[in-house]
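Subject: design request, 214 residues
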């Protein structure tokens, strides 16, 4: 029997997403990350259970620039977005779901007219750097110190994705994600290959459910 995931777009971070994020990003969170209220939260669920999530934040100040006290020197502005706080529920690891939720964040950003997207990863997590590169993020190789909104200090690599030239990468990565999920007995009911292809060629990628209740 195929198990099914669904994708949701949320203006406010659902409580269960925040609870799972505290597990995946341990640190002195209190109520919420101050950037949550100006972000779109992309959430993957199995029924009512949180599977993975990430967020897209546009405008100034850029999140990664905040974390690094602008040492990252990343672009900011109306058509610039940051990809951050992406995680996978530990019960669903090894299904390429981090790749999938990051891809969904990128596709959402593309659909609302974002021209460039910034992302970062903790330096020793090479897999995440490789995965972001697969999605079109290009790193300058510099390592910057950060103090994130969870109060933890890290060393980060940062990169930028040029949305206008990365479309073919997104289609290829979507195929990888879909095939990997199917091979493990899962599917995402509202994320087929045709919708990904449409997303690359237009801004009509807004067919996600917006009911974000837990």
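Subject: RE: design request

Done. Sequence follows.
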């Amino acid at each position: 029997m195929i198990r099914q995931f669904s994708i949701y777009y949320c203006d406010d971070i659902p409580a269960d997403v925040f609870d799972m994020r505290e597990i995946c990003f341990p640190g002195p969170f209190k109520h919420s990350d101050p950037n949550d209220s100006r972000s779109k939260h992309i959430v993957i669920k199995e029924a009512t259970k949180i599977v993975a999530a990430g967020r897209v934040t546009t405008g100034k100040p850029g999140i990664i620039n905040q974390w690094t006290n602008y040492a990252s020197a990343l672009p900011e502005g109306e058509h610039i977005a940051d990809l951050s706080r992406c995680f996978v529920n530990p019960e669903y690891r090894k299904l390429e779901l981090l790749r999938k939720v990051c891809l969904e964040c990128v596709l959402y950003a593309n659909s609302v007219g974002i021209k460039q997207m910034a992302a970062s990863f903790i330096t020793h997590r090479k897999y995440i750097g490789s995965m972001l590169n697969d999605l079109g993020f290009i790193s300058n190789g510099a390592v910057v110190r950060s103090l994130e909104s969870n109060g933890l200090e890290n060393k980060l690599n940062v990169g930028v994705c040029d949305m206008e030239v990365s479309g073919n990468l997104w289609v290829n990565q979507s195929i990888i994600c879909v095939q990997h999920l199917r091979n493990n007995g899962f599917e995402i009911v509202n994320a087929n290959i045709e919708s990904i292809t449409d997303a690359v060629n237009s801004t009509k990628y807004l067919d996600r459910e917006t009911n974000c209740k837990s």
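Residues 167-183 form the longest helix (17 residues).
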